[in-house]
Every structure is written in C-alpha cells, then in structure tokens.
Amino acid sequence: MSRPRGRTRADRVGPAALIISLAGLLALTACTTSGSAAVNPPTPSSQSAQAAQPSQAKQASGSILPLRSTLHWHSCSGQLATEGVPDCTMLSVPLNYADPGGRHISLALDMVPATAPQSRQQGVMLVNPGGPGGDGLPLAAEVAQGINPGVAADYDIVGFDPRGVGSSVPALSCDPSFFSGVRPNYIPANSAAEQVLINRAKMYADDCEQKFGWLLPYMTTEDVARDIDSIRAAFGVAQINYYAFSYGTYVGQVYATLFPDRIRRMVLDSTVDPTGVWYTDNVDQDYAFQGRMEAFFAWVAKYDSTYHLGSTAAQVQAEWYKARNQLLAHPVDGTIGADDFDDTFLEGGYSDELWPGLAQALSSYLNSGQTGDLITQYEADGTQSENEFAVYNAVQCSDVNWPRSWAYWTADTEMIYQKAPFQAWDNAWFNASCAFWPVQGPARPLQIKGAGLPGILMLQGTLDPATPYAGAQDAHKLLPSARMVVVEGGGNHGQSLEQPSNSCVQGYLNAYLATGALPKAPGLVNATCPAVPDPTPGTSGA
What we know:
It contains 17 helices and twelve strands.
C-alpha cells in the first residue's frame, strides 16, 4: 500500500462526535500503557483477577457459543481518558505463537457494548481501519455511529491497536526524526541524488533492526490474524464478526484462511488483492493514483472561476507542478517541501471530500502568495506518523520477500514514471526499506482459501486508487461465498460510513449486519450503487 492509511481523516466524523451517549451504559475504550518493554504473561494470580464482571463483559448469544470472557475492563488514564469513554483493557498475547509460553506483548482494546436485549445480541464485532499501522481504537465509536442504531445495538463493537501500533505495547518506532525537516526530493535528479535516498532507506531498516530486532520477525499479517484469534478467545466466544477497510481486508482474508470456522459475518470494504502482496499491489497503486490525481485536476478546472488555476486539466496540472517546483526550491517554514506537498495531495486520492480544501490551498499559494491554507492542509493530511511508518514497513517487508536488487526497483520505477509520474518515485521510496529489511519473508504470499466460509459482504469502488477494482475482484474470486456491491464511479477509499453517506451502500451494509442478507445476483458484480456526487467548492476544507 502506498501509505499506512485505511480510512483517512476526511472519512472520519469529528472527535466530538466519537463520544457515544449510551444512556448511562459504559462505552469502553483502551487505556494507555507507557514504556516500550514487552509485557510478561499474566501470572496465575493476575489471570484470575482478569475475569470480567458479568455486567462489563457480556457473553455472546445467537449462533455464537457463549464461553467465559477473561477480559478485565477498567478506567483509562492519560491521553486516552476521553469524556464519555472511561474504560479500557489491555490483552497479553504471545510475541511468537510458536512459543506461547515465551515473551508476551500487549494489545490495546476498546469497545462500544451492545445495548439490545440479550436475546437479540449478535456477539462481538472486531473492526479494523487498515494500514498497516492504522490506529484501530477510534473506529469502534465511528462504526457504532455510522451504522443503523438498531443494528449497532446488537453488537459489542470492538476496536484494537494491532501489535506495534499506537497504544499497544511496545509501540514500534525506529527513528522518530525520520520525517522531520525537509526531505530529499522523491524524484532523483541523478544517480548521486538517488544514492542519498537509497542510503536513507538502508539507514531506516538498520535503525529498526537495532532497536526492535527481537520484534520484527513477528510483525506479519499472520501474526495479526492470530492476535485477532487471541481477542476472540479472550472474549470467550467461538466465532467473531469482522468489519474492515483496506489493509484490514487482507487481515480478514488471512484470518479466514487460518480459522475458517471462527468467522460468523465479515464485511470487507475496499479489498486488497492478496495475489499481489506487496510489490505488485504497490505498482498497481501507482497507476490508479495517477487516475485519481487527473480526476482532481479536471475537477479543479471545472471550477476555474473559483480557483483560477486553469480551465483544462492540463493547465491545472501545470500549475500543480509549478507549485511543487517552487516548494522544492523554497520550502514553506522550512518544513513543507516538494515531498510534503506530494504527501498532502496524495490524501485527495483517498477522499474527494478533501478536494475543495486542497484546491483552495493551491490557489491561494500560487495566486496570492499565501501559505496559510497550504500549511493547514499539510498539518491535517500531509504529516506522517513515524509509528505508522515503522509498522507499515515491519508488516509489508516481512509478509513476503521483496526484490533485493535496487537496480530492479530503479528500472521498474523509471518505466512506471513515464505513465504515472505522480506517485511512482514517492511510492518507491516509501517502500524502499523493504529492499534492505533484516527479515526475509517467504517467496510468495499466503495462498488465500475461501472454501467453507459463511457469506461475506464486499464493498468496492471502481476507481479506488489504494485498492484498485481489478485487484478486489481477484480477491472476490478466491472467496466464493462473498457477494460484492460495486460502487460505479466510486473513487473514494472506503465506500461505507462515507461523509456524505451513500444510502445505497449503507442499505446493503445494515441489512447484512442485521440478518446476514446478501445480494443474490450471480457473478463478480452482485449489486451496484451510484457513487456519491463530487464535492463542490466550499463544501469541505482541511
């Protein structure tokens, strides 16, 4: 994936809206644990203390076999102590599942509990926003608000930070200063400039090995899938429901392959092609993001009377590259250079809700010499979390072995650049550490097996740049029980929980979560929905 992004900032409701009022019931969110040392397994005495009180960790009903939960929910403190969501838990899991009695690490979990009568509840639903490296804790509240309230009431909606992420312990960090200051131009002018970027990628891989060499071999997607099964076991249920976006859909495919009898319902929104993990998937993204960037240029040209950047897509594109060249020579505030400019506008590929704000930032910078809008957009969308970046590398570089010859990367990138210049070199350098990663992955990705699975709901836009449509259909072919709702002309990454809402998509989503109902049409396109309309100037911003 080109960025450790699943659902982008624009796809999420505002922070205040994440606070759920449950008429006095507890909304449970994960607590902060400081430090980076691994957490030891619970002792017998502490394990017995973790037995959840019945009022806090309800046993699942319906088709899920009720067992006994061993999760202990308690008050949060520190940065995660948010009004209205006071309780949290940490779950100890094996670092290496081949050695379950060895070193342990901890996962941060939160939950919006079911409020429906016990007889109607449908069990635990784990949610995952994507990445790798995405913070999963905020998504539980977003899902609880984004689906039909009557459906949300049926589920214990559980978010979690995957191993190495955010509030889980340890939080992987290799070089906190990696994104500080102005970075070398992604597009190398010559071999010497390219070598500078190669050395930078090597250095990052070396830093990760030096600081977290003990953790890196156990940061694969298969490890994340086994962590999900540990969460299932801790809740004391025989099956889980799973709802994921982007990279989270690959986690779901791996989980279903490893544990097919432990899935009850599964929603895959914007699905990763498991046959291209990960080098080919990234190449496919380069071409898809080029299409989205060209769509953005055309949209800006449509509103030339507002933005004054040209009346054709070609004219707007020329203005965009003019701005990039100016920032390459003269970064704004010594922090926003050409690469940061690229990263900021890349987010517009994930969500066209950002287009008005990005267009205004480009217009005010070029036409008025003002940098305030550009800074606002960069701070909202262009800044990169080094923890996300570290986890992104740790997972993708270890899932499967990448080409180890940098000459191979250069030849490919130069070829891609001829047709898809916007993202070609940017994406190459974002993944470059995989050429030097200390962990050797397998030669081929895990073969996804879909036999014997329950019905799965897939949601997919035809113009999604991060998980292109053709790749999502490759995944569909491997999941014979899946039914895909195709959003014709949908270019946003994440088709459900959109703002503004796509009522057609939400209808299929709510019906499936409520009753398991799926579209009945045969083939690879089982239902279609129209895309939400393009934004108009002034409808969104930073």
